[in-house]
Design brief:
There is one protein chain. By secondary structure, the chain is α/β, with parallel strands linked by helices. The chain has two domains: 347 residues, Queuine tRNA-ribosyltransferase-like (TIM Barrel); 112 residues, no CATH class. The protein contains 20 helices and 18 strands. The strands form four sheets. The protein has an eight-stranded parallel β-sheet. Its EC number is 2.4.2.48. It catalyses: guanosine(15) in tRNA + 7-cyano-7-carbaguanine = 7-cyano-7-carbaguanosine(15) in tRNA + guanine. It holds the Pfam family TGT. This is tRNA-guanine(15) transglycosylase.
């Protein structure tokens, strides 16, 4: 395990951890508010009151403005921002992606970050946008890797060093980049150039980027999702193993008079009520906020409150072992998020490798729940059940049948399992009384597989009234079905 990162709790591929920095220990997952050193909507010294443990700012911007540069070099970054907690600094890669060129070298920006006392520094990587030709992605990735390796040789104990994972929207390049960086022992691994995916609601592609990068990394290292600041997608990204997030959204959205919630975004001018209980919303009406001279500041404060509220809920969900239920709730707030949920469950085999074998009660939240890692894990272990003689497969609502050697309960989306496990996780799942087609289909697939794995046993299936599925025809060929 990374010596600076300790994982204390897990659920799905998400985790709660402790990240050790020169200015203190940070509990992850967490959000780092982005501080513009030229224009601060909210003072950095106030950020702790919202829940911020750590900030992120731009070392390139500081280095280009004489007044900021001189103070940072003389008094240090923390004095410049008036914040005594950990501060991460970006290198100017965002400006590079926007303007095409910047007046600083990789070596210069690394030395500057060390000099001003950054807790986590970032090399000058190349943020390759989505959908570029593969040749460009490969060429820019090669340059990025060269710069990161150069930076690794320049930094010892002065600060922690990030190793951004690039590769555009090519999953194999993302995994290759991660595998290459893994060998050089960076302290934090940001996933770069993903903002364009989030701006265009390409959350399913974002899932591909996260999973392919995670597959190439050591599973015990902290991962930072660059530019991910909307609380709507925190649960999803954390469930896939992201630990750090940075948010300029609180200020940028406020500038456009936008009001953030965990389920989406409103324009303040379209609100008649404020659907929030943060200090800003309980002390103002919608009309008062619209007309306030400091409306943008009020919105920025609200946006920060709701951002950290959601992250606390994510962490509580990890503690209780129901993070995937929260993911499914959040992913039903927008069609593109629902696509991301389906894409996430296409990686259930990978998630299952990280998901704890035992946790709280499984809650069935819809058709996608039939693809959860708990269901996959059960499917993969059907060969552990040895059944001989006669076996009854009955609904949980039916009492035990006599005169059978084996008593099995049928429960979607799992299928048939020994009745004595009915109160054991995950079979103690809370499910809908009438299974949907996806749940019933998965349960029948598993039941058929179980019967085929025990060809010498004789099975009788008690079918509940109203259940219909094409797989019942196949089941009827290998078991007796009674209604």
């Amino acid at each position: 395990m990374s010596s600076i990162f300790e994982i204390t709790q897990k659920d799905a591929a998400g985790r709660i951890g402790k990240l050790k920095t020169p200015h203190g220990v940070v509990e992850t997952p967490t959000v780092m508010p982005v501080i513009n050193p030229n224009l601060q909507a909210i003072k950095p010294s106030e950020m702790r009151s919202f829940g911020a443990q750590m900030l992120i700012t731009n070392s390139y911007i500081i280095s280009r403005k004489e007044e900021l540069r001189e103070k940072a070099m003389k008094e240090g970054l923390h004095a410049l921002l008036d914040f005594d907690g950990p501060i991460m600094t970006d290198s100017g890669s965002f400006q590079l992606s926007v303007y095409g060129d910047i007046e600083v070298t990789n070596e210069q920006i690394i030395e500057f970050q060390k000099t001003i006392g950054s807790d986590i520094g970032v090399p000058l990587d190349i943020p390759t946008p989505p959908d570029v030709p593969r040749s460009r992605a490969e060429s820019e990735l090669e340059t990025t890797l060269e710069r990161l390796i150069e930076a690794r040789g320049m930094v010892n104990d002065e600060m922690l060093l990030a190793g951004p994972v690039q590769g555009s929207t090519y999953p194999d390049l993302r995994q290759k980049a991660a595998e290459s960086l893994r060998e050089h022992k960076f302290d934090v691994y940001p996933l770069g150039a993903v903002v364009p995916l989030m701006e265009t609601y390409r959350y399913a592609d974002l899932v591909d980027v996260i999973v392919s990068s995670k597959k190439g990394l050591d599973p015990t290292v902290p991962v930072h999702l660059f530019g991910a600041g909307h609380p709507m997608m925190f649960a999803l990204a954390v469930a896939l193993g992201c630990d750090l997030f940075d948010s300029a959204a609180y200020a940028l959205y406020a500038k456009d008079r936008r009001y953030i919630t965990a389920n989406g975004t409103y324009h303040i001018d379209n609100l008649s009520y404020l659907p929030c209980s943060c200090p800003i919303c309980v002390s103002h009406t919608a009309e008062e906020m619209k007309k306030a001279d400091n409306c943008k500041e009020l919105l920025a404060r609200h946006n920060l409150y709701v951002t950290f509220e959601e992250m606390r809920l994510v962490k509580q969900s990890i503690k209780e072992g129901n993070l995937l239920e929260l993911v499914e709730q959040r992913c039903r707030t927008h069609p593109r998020m629902l696509e991301a949920l389906k894409r996430m469950y296409s990686y259930s085999d990978w998630i299952e490798e990280h998901d704890p074998a035992s946790k709280s009660t499984f809650f069935y939240c819809g058709p996608e729940s039939a693809q959860r890692p708990e269901v996959l894990r059960f499917s993969n272990k059907l060969d552990r059940f040895t059944i001989t003689g006669s076996a009854i497969i009955r609904p949980a609502s039916k009492k035990e049948f006599k005169n059978y050697d084996n008593d099995l309960v049928f429960k979607a989306p799992f299928g048939a399992f020994p009745a004595e496990l009915i109160e054991v996780y995950p079979f103690n799942a809370e499910v809908i009384s009438t299974p949907d087609v996806e749940s019933l289909g998965k349960a029948l697939e598993n039941t058929i597989a179980l019967i085929e794995l025990n060809p010498d046993a004789k099975f009788t299936f008690i079918k509940e009234e109203g259940l219909e599925h094409p797989l019942f025809e196949k089941l009827g060929k290998i078991a007796e079905i009674k209604e």
